[in-house]
Amino acid sequence: MNFLAASIESLGAKVVGWFTVGYGMFAFLAKAGLLLLEPATWNRATFDVVVKQIYFTAVQILHVFLGYALVISWLIITIILSTARDFGLTEFASEMTIRVLVLELLPFLTALFVALRSGSAINTEVALMQVNNELDALAHCKVPPMQFEFLPRLIGGVVSVVTLAGLAGLLAILMGYLAIYGMNAAGFEPYTRTIAKIFDFRIMAGLIVKCALFGLAVTLIPVTAGLETPKKLFMVPVSVLRGMMRVFFAIVAIEVVSLALKYI
User: Fold this and answer.
1) pLDDT tens digits for 46-69?
2) Is 35 exposed, middle or buried (0-12, 13-18, 19+ CB in 10 A)?
3) Please, which pLDDT band fits residue 223 given cuts at 50, 70 and 90?
4) Per-residue pLDDT for 5 more than 70?
5) Among 13, 65, 92, 136, which is 20 to 30 Å from 38 by CA?
6) Which residues fall within 8 angstroms of residue 98, CB to CB, at 6 or more apart?
7) CA-CA distance, 85 to 11, in Å (whole number)?
8) Of 71, 100, 96, 70, whose CA–CA distance to 84 is shortest?
9) Contact indicator for 162, 184 with CB cutoff of 8 Å
10) How many angstroms separate the CA atoms of 189 and 172, rounded?
């Protein structure tokens, strides 16, 4: 009986903890959204910080990311074409390539790539600022951390993931054409017809929203996890681990919901 009561109490504490974390993230996001709508937010200093965040998150890693997307796309396209030929479904190879790579796999892998490179760095930086009282010092000097530290990271993450996923998708579309038709221009018309059939307004809007949610997850969650860090230096690695686990589960949840809405 004591074991059952302890188990129920432990489960209740975990559920309350999850709701507390979720409420904290949504409250932080609401505060950032309200700040985003204020005209006074968009001064030269804020704009410069946003540009720097986009540079560090997307532009600085562009060559590495495109190489990563190139290898992944080539492997998946090769597998799809080989499987399609084995089952006599070559005419559907282009549509399968676009649906599997451009709509699902590449946005998901882009979010993971940005999360591992930038999300973990953001979590660590915010946690160290929290532990070292740097955020309190900024507020004391009348430099709002939300405006100059957090909001630019949120915007940079969303813009970076949407842009990188778009570039990877274009690269995959080009590689798919070359793999299926080669350098022959005769396949241009059927290939573009397939693209136009897949990318209607609903699919395009859903893809952009999904990528934006991915970008928000890989920045919002690390920032809020960093702010939860107790002011003890040894808790920084724990905060980063906790934050990155939340990011992973959030990315998977977004992808699962997207698939369910699209295909079920």
Assistant:
1) 888 889 999 988 999 899 999 999
2) middle
3) very high
4) no
5) 136
6) 172, 173, 176, 194, 195, 198
7) 51
8) 96
9) no
10) 18
